[in-house]
Design a protein that fits this description.
Blueprint (H helix, E strand, L loop, with lengths): L8 E6 L3 H11 L4 E7 L13 E3 L4 H11 L4 E4 L6 H14 L3 E4 L12 E4 L2 H6 L7 E4 L6 H4 L6 E6 L13 E4 L6 H10 L4 E5 L8 H9 L2 E5 L8 E3 L2 H18 L2
Parallel strand pairs: 1-2, 1-4, 2-3, 4-5, 5-12, 6-11, 7-8, 7-10, 8-9, 10-11
This protein binds NADP nicotinamide-adenine-dinucleotide phosphate (NAP).
């Protein structure tokens, strides 16, 4: 017998990506669910969300486990960035500790196509060390957290794209900061790279469409891309799209209805 559960299914959505924002929009009006979006709090003005939002770290695996138990979360959706490996690892451990299902939305990584000139590295530090020793015009899409690593090669003329505007750090005397939020367009990045005479692009293999413009622009302009491979994340259930995540949530809602809890 199918019994309607009394309370909505409680979903914790770990965000900070375009997929998380899209899933938040899709979940907002679903009366079967009570979803909360969690953000790390890295950006000053996060994209407005129709879901209730909580901001800031949980305090490691123990903090997240306590949150999941206290908020009586039924499902965790990890829609964090592929490079947010610590949060993803913590989510796997905490969901297992409290015994609830976890699903990750994992975009396929970008792959090299004809005309791409890539060198791949296992870390941000290795990618920066892979730049030529002589000063170069370098576009960095590595994000704000990589700025200390850039200072290991301060001779380059960096163009550093970040979400929130800020001054260039003093230890990067030839750096220029630009503040912009994706999605980006290839024609705009072609214009940007041409204007700044960019010869090298530092990038993380994020996958997805929102940040692919720089890869397309580099291909069109014959620019070398120093590509950081993704960090490894333990085995977990994954899907590659927001639609598939919605289907997974619906399936869990049906399962719970059938159990009558
Ligand atoms: N890394 C990137 O390139 C990148 C790019 C675009 C967007 N983002 C987004 O920016 C956020 C931080 O990325 P990161 O690389 O710094 O992550 P990280 O290194 O994996 O996480 C470091 C710590 O930040 C907290 N945290 C991370 N994501 C959180 C979330 N969604 N909600 C609450 N706390 C969170 C956790 O603190 P506690 O241990 O205290 O819980 C986590 O242990 C993520 O939400 C990610 O989706 C990252």
């Amino acid at each position: 017998m199918i019994t309607k559960p009394d309370s909505p299914l409680r979903v914790l959505l770990l965000g900070g990506t375009t997929e998380a924002a899209a899933l938040a929009r899709a979940l907002a009006d679903d009366k079967r669910l009570a979803a909360t979006l969690s953000l790390a709090g890295r950006t000053a003005n996060p994209v407005a969300s129709p879901l209730p939002v909580r901001i800031g770290g949980f305090g490691g695996v123990d903090g997240l486990s306590a949150y999941l138990a206290h908020a009586r979360i039924d499902l965790v959706i990890d829609a964090t960035h592929p490079f947010a490996a610590r949060m993803s690892a913590n989510a796997i451990s905490a969901a297992a500790a409290v015994g609830i299902p976890l699903l990750a939305i994992e975009r396929p990584p970008w792959t090299r196509t004809g005309g791409d000139d890539w060198i791949e590295y296992d870390s941000i530090e290795a990618a920066i060390a892979g730049l030529p020793a002589a000063p170069q015009n370098v576009f960095s899409a590595l994000g704000r957290q990589a700025i200390p690593a850039l200072s290991k090669a301060p001779q380059h003329r960096y163009l550093i794209r970040v979400v929130d505007a800020s001054d260039a750090p003093a230890n990067l005397p030839h750096a220029t900061m630009i503040a912009a939020r994706g999605p980006f367009r290839a024609e705009d990045d072609i214009e940007l790279f041409s204007r700044h005479g960019i010869r090298h692009v530092l990038a993380k293999n994020a996958g997805g469409n929102a940040a692919y413009a720089k890869i397309e622009a580099a291909r069109k302009l014959g620019i070398k891309v120093h590509m950081v491979r993704r960090p490894a994340i333990a085995a977990r259930e994954t899907v590659t799209s927001v639609e598939a995540a919605l289907a997974w949530i619906t399936r869990h809602h049906q399962l719970r209805s059938e159990r009558g809890v």
